[in-house]
Amino acid sequence: MYRAYISGIGHYLPENIVTNDDLAKIMDTSDEWIVERTGIKQRHYITGNQGPTDLAIPATKDALKMAGLTEDDIDLIIFATSTPDYYAPGSGCLLQEKMGFNTIGALDIRVQCPGFVYGLSIAEQYIKTGTAKHVLLVGAEVQSTALDMTTNGRDTAVIFADGAGAVILSATKEDKGILSTHLHSEGKYAKELWVESPSSKVNPRITPEIIDDGKHLLFMNGREVFKNAVRRFPEVIIEAMDANGLTIDDIDVLVPHQANIRITEFVAKKLGMPMNKIISNIHRVGNTTAASIPIALSEAVSEGKIKKGQNIILAAFGSGFAWASAAIKW
Ligand code: UT7
User: Fold this and answer.
1) Which of 31, 102, 195, 257 is deepest in the core (most CB within 10 A)?
2) What percentage of the chain reaches a pLDDT higher than 90?
3) Pocket residues for ligand 1 (CB within 6 Å)?
4) Average pLDDT over residues 149-171
């Protein structure tokens, strides 16, 4: 059996930076409210017609470069996004074409915020069994086009943002890489954080009425998400530690999904983990859903915050509700 380890990583944030003050010009909000309730000071939005595959390209190029590989070395593409370029085909196929990969398998997974961790779990299975040697896993999102940029949608609009992260998972026989992954879902909360339209249950799928009602925009019941997140994050982190006989002291770095700094602080307190072991970039990047963990991880690696031999935990919670964690020996 092989182990899957991250041989390359990269990320990309669109150039257009939108500050809290910029949002306060178009809706009734303030820098003070957003910082106090979420920790966010700014976020990046696309300009023009960029889709998640466009954001994924520079991230993937950097990941390939770090791994010392070319497009020809990749055996499988896994693309985690809740905001695909199109309903069909998946963004993985679009990336295959745009980057000139061989005619390899390309699959999209739509598990929203934990999508990247779910993707790690899938990639690991291919690598462990020797079915694939190098897998490209992308987390990329364009959320800005699904936000209600009026006072009506202010609780959701101030949180979500655009960006992409990519990793190459490679096979090794060394004592490093993914130790375990842990996946969960609870669909009874589906409507607490969802995009209702367009829906294949409705004919036609999109109408002026649907748009007038804002059903094509991201809806979030923030309080319900918060309540469940602060329960599930610690649970799934402890599950990953227990599966590997690790204690809090054994964890060198926690990379949580960047949902809200208050959620991260709550989790840190509940676990008794010092904040300096926890990667946080939400003040600069906002919540980029499936892209959030690979962006934070990529920044941490390039800043030298993650070192060989360290125990890393990744954990995410979001729409579904779905949540997941991964334990990694770097
Ligand atoms: O990836 C996972 C996805 N999401 C999350 O992790 C989000 C989880 N939830 C949250 O982070 C929080 O629930 C929010 C940040 C979304 C909201 O914070 P809150 O402390 O739960 O505020 P609230 O919804 O209870 O609203 C408090 C007040 C309300 O006014 P009233 O009724 O007390 O007069 C809101 O209308 O704050 C108001 N409000 C705002 N005010 C200024 C809501 N959004 C805003 C805003 N600016 N952007």
Assistant:
1) 257
2) 100
3) 29, 33-34, 37-38, 113, 154-155, 158-159, 220, 222-223, 225-226, 229, 259-260, 263, 287, 318
4) 97
